[in-house]
């Protein structure tokens, strides 16, 4: 059809145009269409008007213009002087040009530094050193978030949140800047997940590192709950808890089902190593806090977790992957203990010291011994695995929760053996902790510190519990808890003065490890005072006049932690 005929085609009348109907003229000379004639309507045609083509949207033009400018020419938005901005304006009066600050008066972030929060800047050179330090000293303590990056500039482009979190962990700022970072971190996580609906691996990894290298008082203030729940929800939303392949998977539509039957379904890629490590990291952290602090927020271990561990063991992309798999394995045993005896915790009416309880304890103990014996040679004396093993034994042999201290048990010697096994397990945990060199103390996660707190609280209870089957005087003679507490205080004092950047983090006005050392000295004083007041020792134990933080140490925190570990001092 010629182009001219297209241009001379008559326009539809207003009635047909409104009805979105086809407008057909009765004949060439008539001024009415068939639809208007049939319905007895007035047929009126609108004047022909040229259609205006829309140009690019304003925001698109701005983005295109900004992309054409080089990064060196980008400047922060100009700010009007506050005195001029606050001056009232009068309507109808011409305003003169407002003088803008010159380039020399603007605060422009340096090109060779990373600005995290106000008052917390790190140069790229130091950031590169932080990444190297993280991979060599921090990763062996929590092998779930290795870094593929060697340059901080590359990581800042790809994973800025994770980079800033690692810098905060390895280079703690002053208390004001640290509080500002914590507030910014929570707000950023909320903006990404709630406002922008973003869900990615980086968010989960940043949450893991933020929690696991926080101080022990962070958990007493219950600041971790929301972040833990968010991490669990994110791994579910990202489908990390589900296999991406399988022979008996359920499909969402009959089309996929039919394609699968005809072998025409596209092959699904298996989960990456990053996916597996992130999933295992959430399981490790939540299960540890469940056993130590009674948290109820955890992941259910499924056969898919075994597939992830097998994939990591087979690929061995990082040297720490074998430790990761072993940590997940021992946490699985710990959760068996937790799930088996959870309902019996704190219930004085139950007396499962014999029968089914004894069988369950023997089964878990044999499984734990077999697990530790089959570890490779390079992991047999790993302090993380040994502290986890000792903490499982402590939870397994907590007799004062289950038995009768009135001497009515039929076999008191079994109860005495169980109490002694529990006390001996606390000593094994101390021995495992002594495997850590003083220079490596600043790299420890809060899980290790909580394990140590668990051993202190359990030993304090067992050395004070009164039971017909328990020789308390002999136990106190053979297990010198005050001496152990003095050793721990010295270790943490040495760690506080070794010059590590992490040891300079301030908690309650003191370096963090000095604060821990003072806590152990305070517990020693309280324990010795209680022993002397019992009158069970012939000679009162010596008690050094230790003063911390300007006065007697406040044990409120340890009372709270004792509540977390299922019960107060007996």
From TrEMBL:
Protein's UniProt name: Zn(2)-C6 fungal-type domain-containing protein
Record domain Zn(2)-C6 fungal-type: where: 12-43
Matching InterPro entries: prtT (IPR051089), Zn2-C6_fun-type_DNA-bd_sf (IPR036864), Zn2Cys6_DnaBD (IPR001138)
Subcellular location: Nucleus
Principal place of residence: nucleus
Keyword Coiled coil: no
GO CC terms in record: nucleus
Membrane-crossing segments per the record: none
Presence of keyword Transcription: yes
Molecular-function annotations in GO: DNA-binding transcription factor activity, RNA polymerase II-specific; transcription cis-regulatory region binding; zinc ion binding
